[in-house]
Amino acid sequence: MPRINLLPWREAQRKQRLKNFGIAAAAAVALGVGAVLYAHATVNRFIDYQEKRNKYLEGEIATLDKQIAEIKELEATKERLLARMQIIEQLQRSRPEVVHLIDELVRRLPDGVFLKSVKQTGNKLSIKGVAQSSTRVSAFMRNIDGSEWLDDPGLDVVETKEEGRARNSEFTIFATQVSHANPDAAEETTK
After folding, report:
1. Structural element, H or E, at residue 187
2. Residue 18 domain-assigned?
3. pLDDT tens digit sequence for 62-112
4. How confident is the model over 112-144, as pLDDT tens digits?
5. Could you tell me if residue 1 is inside a domain?
6. Which domain CATH number covers 143?
7. Is position 133 within any domain?
8. Distance (Å, rounded) from C-alpha 127 to C-alpha 105?
9. Within the chain, what is the greatest distance between any pair of CA atoms?
10. CA atoms in the 13 A half-sphere facing the CB of 178
11. Which helix (H) or strand (E) holds 58?
């Protein structure tokens, strides 16, 4: 005899499929949510790690900036000290020049010429004096021109004044002092 199943088996099969689909969908959603959460946590961990590295680098950059500022300050101090040392060395080398200058003025002074004042500004000299005649003033200028310590004489004023029977010429001469205290000569003598 044939067996006939009258139970609604298709309905049970459909419910089983729907149940299996719900379970698979829930598992897929849970797996997707888990993957998203894991990715989010991983990205946050990378961001935190990079922020820590950035903070460390910013701290090191600030430390290096302070060190660079200190180095620049030290270099500026060094430059100032070197400039002072050069000025002191130049003054040490030029100290005897005043003696040579006065000695040279005395040696180049012809008879009948008397100096009233000698003023020095830098390497420029202003010499004021009195001479018995204007020819003695020109002789004094020629003597200055032939000097190794004085150069470039120039006459500014010559006034002839009569005092009693004597006629005197008051003059102002400008000259340039020649410096023999150059650093190249000092270096050559030390070699």
Report:
1. helix 183-190
2. yes
3. 999 999 999 999 999 999 999 999 989 888 877 777 788 888 888 888 888
4. 899 999 998 888 989 999 998 888 888 888 888
5. no
6. 3.30.1360.100
7. yes
8. 10
9. 181
10. 13
11. helix 9-108
Tally of domains within the chain: 1
Are the CB atoms for 131 and 137 separated by under 8 Å? yes
Range of the domain at 32: 9-191
- Judged by DSSP in three states, 160 sits in strand
Mean of per-residue pLDDT scores for the chain: 86
The SS3 of residue 68 is helix
pTM for this prediction: 0.51
Question: Is residue 170 domain-resident?
Answer: yes
Residue matched to tokens 């050069």: 86
CA distance 177 to 113: 20
Burial of 43 (0-12, 13-18, 19+ CB in 10 A): exposed
Residue 24 tokens read as 């698979």
